[in-house]
Each structure stands twice: as C-alpha cells, then as structure tokens.
Amino acid sequence: MEDDSPGNVDRDSDESLMRRFQSGDTDAFVLLFNRYSTHLINFANRFLFSQEESEDAAQEVLLRIHNARDRYDASRPFRPWLFSIASRLISNRLRQKKRHPLISLFHSTEDDDSPPVDPPERRGHGPEQNMENQHLATLIQSSLALLPENQRNAVILARFEEMTNEEIAQIMGTSVSSVKSLLFRARQTLKNALKPFIQNQPTPPKSTATF
Amino acid sequence: MNCKNVVQKLPDYLSHTLGEPETVGVRAHLDLCLECREESRLLSASWDMLGLLEPVQPSAYFHARFWEKVRQQENVVLERTGFFAKFPFVPALAGFFVLWVLGVAGGARLFAHRHETATPMEIALNRFTSPYPQNSIEIIFQEGRTPTGRMPVTHQGESL
Ligand SMILES: [Zn+2]
Q: Count of alpha carbons within 13 Å of A3, Cβ hemisphere only?
C-alpha cells in the first residue's frame, strides 16, 4: 500500500492525531499529512488521470482538513470524513473538467460485452515489457473511466482504500444496500471491459502497470 | 440456489462477506456449474487486475508547495483580521475629519481676512454696543443718548 497502512495499531490513531491538532499541535497534522498525502494523490489520480491535477486536488483536501480542524468531531472516524471531503472536491473538479479523455478507447455503453481493445498476444521483457505495462495501465484506466462517477467512487474506495461497504456508504452519504448495488454494477462493467485481456491470460499477469 | 441467485451473491462471496450458510450454497453451486464458475473467475480476475495499477508517488515539491500554501493563507488571514479589517470605516473617517478640519480652518482664515481682524462674534457684539447712530439700539434710545452709549441719568440718579 501507499505510505504506512492505515490499519497499523503501533502508532497514534488518526482520531487522536486530529485531537492533538485541534489542541494546537501542528506536528500531529504533519503526521496525518505524511500518512495520507500519497493516498489522496492516488485517490484523485484514479478519477482525474493526471498527476499534476491529482496533487492539486490532494493539496486542496489537506488544506480543507487543516482549516476545518475545529469542525471535526473527534468521536467519529477520521478516514470517512477525509475521503468524503476528497470525494466532494474531486466531484467538483470532474464537473469542471467535463471530459473523459480515455473513454474513447471503449464503447460508452455499460452492457457492451466486447470493448474494442485488442488483448496483447504475447508478453515480453525490456522495452516490450514497458509497452506492455503501459498498455495494461491504459486498459485498466479506460475500464475505470467507463464507470459512472458514483460507481467509480465505490470501486476505488473498496478496491484501493480497502474500505467496508458501511464506510463507503458513510462517505457517499447513501445506504449500504445502495453501495452493494453500485459495486455489483461496477464489477460487471469492469469484468466485461477486461474480459478480452483476462481470457488471453491463462494465469493472472505478474507485472505491475504504472500510470 | 439457482444461477441468478449465485451471480447476485458472487461479489460478497469473493470478498468473504457472505454468511456461512450462503457461502456453502454458492460454493456447492460453483462446483457443479461451469458458467457460474467462469463468471466468478472473470469477476475475481478483473478485480485483481485493478491492483496492477502502480501507485504514483508525490512529486519532489509536493510537501513544500503545501506548506507554502498554508503560509500564504495565514498571511491573508492576518491581513483580514488586523485593526483596519475589523474597523474598515476608520481610514475613511480619519480622511473625512482631516478634510473637515482643513475646510473649517481655511474658511475661518478667509472670513477673518475679509473682516480684517474681527471675528463674527466680535462683529455681532459690536453691533449692539457701537456708539454710532446706525446701531439699532441707538435708534431706539436716540433721545438723551450719550456718545459713550450709556443711557442718560436723571438728577435723582435713576435711569429714564
Ligand atoms: Zn450457475
């Protein structure tokens, strides 16, 4: 995972760090900043597909947290609060952008079983491997870009932030059953988009793809 | 459990959040149904594939840029919460007061220049105490009037 994992018990909890920050301890905020900045950049990047924009978005979220410390209720969990702020800000940015540069790789309908991306015929090493990774990254990004914003939000929180359906419901301001429904439809879309690639892989690919 | 039910439960089954009796039911169905087994494999593999996206790392100046933003913001807050920010009318009021003082001083000086040395109050007083005939009081008490402006006195020492 990025940075240190949020589930680690051998450290101050997010909530206790926020309580310290509320009492004027800036070092506590620095710890939270270090703990979550990479998470937030990657969270934003999975919507915006641009490191520069994602860093701006992450800084905006962290600045909001910094400024809204007095409004935080330390008896409530910190991560859902953090990611609900991040979700809202990124949603605003998406509305401003109003474009999905990668979506043209696929048909835009969710029910389409065969997106027009040719699965790779072979997997090599060196430059070929890099191209392969790039292709894979584009393929995955494109499949994420197919998802409506709320489905993508649920998928990213579940898959990359390892959040429970209850936490996701809290962040998105909806019910657990709605989250389950969003995840079900999203997983169907992802499965259909990635099926041509998967079916050409007897075993799951071992390489890592980079943005 | 039929295929439709199994497909509905597959996400929870794959994320191990399904209850024990249902898990057993889905597993039993998957052992027998090739179609649902393929569906399960595709769902699982596509979910795993998302994890192949390597996370990006913050750029070199990410931290520095953030703290610079915090510093800039604090400066703005200081400017906004200063004395003149709390009382924004004070500079305007001070300016108006200075202009008023200058106007009054200039006006008084001009008036004094026009009336030589007499101030308006002196002129008003002078009109009632002047020994000359054009004075209104002088006209009323014209009879028996002395050049000093005092009323004439009788032999018995009583005023007329
Ligand atoms: Zn079946």
A: 19
Q: Is B47 on the interface with A (CB under 8 A)?
A: yes
Which distant-in-sequence residues (6+ apart) come within 8 Å of A196 by Cβ? A114, A115, A117, A118, A119
Q: pLDDT tens digit string along B40-86?
A: 999 999 999 999 988 999 999 999 999 999 999 888 876 766 666 66
Count of positions (residues) in chain B: 160
Can you give the three-state secondary structure of B14-55, one letter per residue?
HCCCCCHHHHHHHHHHHHHCHHHHHHHHHHHHHHHHHCCEEC
Chain A residues in contact with B66 by the CB 8 A cut-off are 33, 37, 59, 62-63
A62–B45 C-beta distance less than 8 A = no
What's the pTM value of the predicted model, to 2 decimals?
A: 0.67
- CATH architecture of the region A124-200: Orthogonal Bundle (1.10)
Q: In this structure, how many other beta carbons lie within 10 angstroms of the beta carbon of residue A45? A: 24
pLDDT tens-place string over residues A21-31: 999 999 999 99
Q: Where are the domains of chain A?
A: 10-101, 124-200
Residue pLDDT, tens place only, A65-120: 999 988 999 889 999 999 999 999 999 999 888 755 554 344 333 333 333 333 33
* CATH 1.10.1740.10 at A10-101, yes or no: yes
**For the complex shown, is ipTM > 0.90?**
no
Q: Which residues of B fall within a CB distance of 8 Å from A66?
A: 70
Residue of A nearest to B11 (CA): A184
Q: To the nearest whole angstrom, how far is the Cα of A24 from the nearest Cα of chain B?
A: 15
Residue B68 contacts A, CB cutoff 8 Å: no
Q: How far is CA A141 from the centre of its chain?
A: 11
B chain contacts of residue A160, beta-carbon cutoff 8 Å: 50
